[in-house]
Write a structure and sequence with these properties.
By secondary structure, the protein is an alpha/beta fold. 24% of the residues lie in helices and 24% in strands.
């Protein structure tokens, strides 16, 4: 997630509607969540307002606090959670770190839990990634940006939920 330190969006950026709708329709409010790579907390804040217990985690944009339930913490929680969500995190890491980051996130989900990833899949990202010899391109803030296709997620056991345009792994 090292490159994500350059990509945290402003506090004015709205959360992704598809990701939020999936959570509302498929996750009970009795479940605990980690917003993995929360940035400035756009998803964390909305989910908390909706009554979910969400640990906001971002190693670069979080505060040095052991309380990720009221803040965005730069620390991971001590306990596993029912649900892990990540929004636009995997697009900003090199392909060779993709599996490592997914495995780390999965290590914080409880048995019978779920890991949910939302990634950028727009045509602009796809064409810029294909045009690059590196497999990624540099974003506006100096971060890498890359397109992740369905096959890359399927190679690590995830399936695409086309209704909500997300990738999900049931543990």
């Amino acid at each position: 997630m090292e490159n994500s330190k350059y990509t945290a969006l402003s506090n004015k950026t709205k959360p992704n509607k598809d990701l939020l709708q999936y959570v509302l329709c498929n996750v009970g409010k009795d479940k605990t969540m980690i917003d993995w790579g929360a940035g400035k907390g756009r998803h964390t804040k909305v989910l908390r307002e909706l009554g979910y217990k969400v640990w906001g985690y971002d190693p670069y944009n979080g505060k040095d606090t052991p309380d990720g339930y009221t803040n965005i913490s730069n620390r991971l929680p001590a306990e596993k959670h029912d649900i892990i969500i990540s929004a636009y995190v995997l697009n900003v890491i090199h392909k060779n770190l993709f599996k490592k980051e997914i495995i780390l996130a999965e290590s914080f989900v409880k048995r019978n839990g779920r890991v949910i990833h939302k990634v950028r899949e727009d045509a602009d990202v796809r064409s810029k990634t294909k045009a690059s010899n590196e497999g990624f391109y540099l974003g506006k803030k100096g971060s890498i940006q890359r397109y992740i296709d369905k096959a890359e997620f399927e190679s690590v056991g995830y399936s695409r939920n086309n209704t909500y345009k997300i990738y999900v792994l049931e543990m």
